[in-house]
Design goal:
The complex is a heterodimer of chains A (367) and B (321). By secondary structure, chain A is α/β, with parallel strands linked by helices. Helix content of chain A is 40%, strand content 19%. Chain A folds into two domains: 39-141 and 265-288, Rossmann fold (3-Layer(aba) Sandwich); 142-262 and 296-362, Response regulator (Rossmann fold, 3-Layer(aba) Sandwich), CATH 3.40.50.2300. The chains are: A alpha/beta (367), B mainly alpha (321). Chains A and B meet through α1, β7 and α7 of A and α1, α3, α4, α5 and α13 of B.
């Protein structure tokens, strides 16, 4: 029996060490060399760093910082981090490793409580609303560029029914869906936009399901406010035009690709890292625009006509100069109720609280 | 008619149920030999990444390369299962601990993600993928067009596998031996059956099936590689084996049922039908139903009747009997 016991002890040890090995490998992080004097900056992503969407755009911003500031900074990232205990642990370990500035790139990551817990660390959160002495918020007015990408989609539809794959029913996604629909309706009056919620930022299988459902229920153009290119791959297989989001994902759908609203995070990150390094960093609420070069459109695909490109360029100019704003009244909701009267405009606070869908959107703002 | 809710959901259920079916058939064979392997998700992800690596990096004709990729995925899954087999059969470690460790070690954010990132597999869509076998005109036939003829070859092969596993377990000498090993290893041992050899073989074959299941994701359903692409399908497959009372033919029904459930939520939304939080119940139903079956299984009287292998999860030690 003693042999049996020792064998079992060895087995237990073996499986335990396997688990430990796995757990140490589990937190994916960038390989960066140790430079003790360099200023340490970290990024936290909700999906994989190479998702061809949201997180990848942030990671390109991180690489831009590393390139611009060279050996003066040391950057790293943590990927696939869920809101909750995992986020708390990730932040704790980054602080322990000496990271002085942490960019959290998903809604709900940081709050004033977390900022108060680590007063010596600077936090910046994309898409959120809470600020504190050491917690800044930053995002871009993507509703403008999503509107422009919606114009490309509206010009491409024949039946006037578009499908839009959406993540969570939160104001950010709702205002993007509204902007997309308004842009499409400009080019195709009366166009309908159907929504399917996936309840996930990144889930290729669910996103493909959503795209299939939208297609089979009559949509002849697809768009998305989720992070993977699964919708685009499906669109390509059905020869249906597709508008992406966050990154240039044309290679996943070479002929279906129209364009996408994109963010240029890099220059903002460089400014903020520099400020943190020389002590001029101040908490704030940054909302970048096309004019700032913060938001823009990805290169067009082959299906976008010259006339459409010209119309979009003209509109982009009008948005830049402030002559046009997509959320200016009159705007009606799904039931035909007047939400924004003529002559009124929605401000950023109202955009951040948007919980209604514009006329012509089919779907529930509750998910 | 082919765009009606029922036809679309069933067709989608068959397509998305296929990886569940492969993984469940593999786990069924493993469990029938008395070994519980909770590492299905990890083995699937290893199969997914290695199958995808093959089509991206090995140059050959489309048909040949896909066959090779499935072979590589099966081999990778079997090798991963070999870790579990060694730990629980030779070293007699706890099957639950070892299986969980395998999923953590090989799964999302583990070895599979290391391999995928190291090979830069996330950068490009699949160079080759499985397409529907039949011509478009046949796929347009009413009802059977999308459901039966709109599928790729992996679906048809999975049907052959169901028949093969069923015949194997009920009509062949080794199949009967496996069931003996899973129900009463001591009796099987006394009959001269090599218990360890049978358990090794079926754990490895189970891993190979899981590897193919993973490759079904990266080569057919969403032809790309991302970390954690199976999205928990391995756990549903384990639940499915219990739900199917350890029978291959019921695995098929259950896989398509669970697959269709996943398609239901987006389909209802796209059609503007709102009946409460569909996402919530569609995603939790497989697990809820499994809990019900587990409750049934936990009572020893119903356990025999449902077909649970009596020695499931127990290491076999000859001198202790």
């Amino acid at each position: 029996m003693s042999r049996g016991k020792s064998v079992r002890a060895v087995a237990l040890l073996a499986s335990a060490s396997l688990a430990v090995l796995a757990l140490t490998a589990a937190t994916g992080s960038a390989r960066t060399e140790q430079r003790s004097s360099a200023f340490k900056v970290a990024w936290i992503y909700v999906g994989p760093h190479n998702d061809h969407g949201w997180s990848q755009a942030h990671d390109q911003g991180r690489l831009y910082v590393q390139k611009q500031l060279g050996s003066k900074v040391q950057t790293t990232f943590k990927e696939n981090v869920a809101v909750g205990p995992q986020l708390q642990q990730t932040v704790a370990s980054l602080v322990r490793d000496g990271y002085k500035l942490i960019f959290g790139t998903s809604y709900g990551y940081f709050d004033t409580k977390l900022a108060a817990k680590y007063p010596q660390v600077l936090f910046e959160q994309a898409t959120g609303t809470q600020t504190a002495k050491n917690l800044s918020e930053y995002f871009g007015a993507a509703e403008d560029t999503v509107y422009l990408s919606g114009m490309a989609a509206g010009a491409a539809t024949k039946k006037g029914t578009l499908g839009y794959v959406v993540a969570y029913p939160i104001p950010e996604v709702i205002r993007h869906a509204n902007a997309f629909a308004l842009g499409a309706q400009l080019m195709h009056p009366g166009a309908k936009v159907k929504l399917v919620w996936t309840n996930s930022w990144f889930d290729p299988s669910k996103e493909k399901h959503a795209a299939e459902s939208l297609f089979s229920s009559g949509a002849d153009v697809l768009g998305q406010n989720v992070d993977s290119p699964a919708t685009g791959e499906f669109a390509q297989s059905k020869h249906v035009p597709w508008v992406g989001y966050d990154s240039n994902a044309k290679k996943f759908a070479p002929t279906s690709w129209l364009t996408a609203s994109v963010y240029h995070w890099g220059p903002y990150y460089v400014r903020r890292v520099k400020a943190a390094m020389n002590g001029t960093w101040k908490s704030g609420f940054y909302y970048g625009t096309i004019k700032d070069g913060f938001t823009g459109l990805a290169p067009y695909g082959p299906k976008v006509s010259k006339a459409t490109k010209a119309a979009i360029a003209k509109k982009m100019q009008a948005i830049k100069t402030g002559k046009f704003y997509e959320f200016a009244g009159p705007l009606y909701d799904q039931k035909g109720k007047l939400r924004v009267p003529k002559g009124k405009r929605l401000n950023v606070q109202q955009l951040y609280a948007m919980n209604w869908l514009v006329r012509g959107v089919i779907g529930s703002p509750k998910g | 008619m082919n765009h009606s809710l029922a036809v679309v959901v069933i067709a989608s259920g068959v397509a998305y149920g296929t990886p569940l079916l492969y993984a469940a058939l593999g786990e069924l064979l493993t469990e029938r030999s008395g070994v519980l392997n909770l590492g299905v998700e990890g083995m699937m992800l290893i199969g997914a990444v290695m199958g995808f690596w093959t089509v991206q990096r090995v140059h050959a004709g489309s048909g040949a390369i896909l066959v090779v990729a499935i072979g590589v995925a099966a081999l990778a899954g079997a090798l991963t299962a070999a870790i579990h087999a060694f730990l629980v059969i030779t070293l007699r470690a706890s099957q639950i601990v070892s299986g969980l460790a395998l999923t953590i070690f090989a799964g999302a954010a583990g070895l599979s993600s290391y391999l995928g990132n190291d090979f830069n597999l996330g950068d490009n869509p699949a160079r080759h993928q499985f397409h529907a076998v039949f011509p478009a005109s046949v796929q347009r036939w009413p009802i059977v067009g999308p459901i039966v003829f709109g599928q790729n070859v992996l679906v048809y092969v999975s049907w052959a596998c169901v028949v093969a596993v069923w015949l194997y377990l009920t009509r062949t000498r080794p199949g009967l031996n496996v069931r003996a090993v899973g129900d009463s290893p001591a009796a099987a041992d006394a009959m001269g059956i090599d218990v360890a050899a049978y358990r090794y073989a079926h754990t490895l074959v189970g891993g190979a099936f899981a590897g193919v299941a993973g490759a079904t994701f990266t080569l057919a359903i969403t032809p790309q590689w991302v970390d954690g692409i199976t999205g928990g399908a391995g756990w549903i497959a384990i639940a499915l084996v219990i739900f199917a009372f350890w029978r291959p033919e019921l695995c098929l029904v259950g896989a398509y049922f669970f697959g269709a459930l996943q398609a239901l939520s987006p389909e209802l939304q796209a059609r503007g039908i709102h009946i409460g939080p569909t996402e919530l119940w569609a995603n939790s139903l497989p697990y809820l139903m499994t809990i019900v079956v587990l409750v049934l299984v936990s009572a020893s009287s119903t356990r025999r009747w449902l077909g649970a292998p009596a020695a499931l999860g127990l290491p076999y030690v000859r001198e202790e009997r």
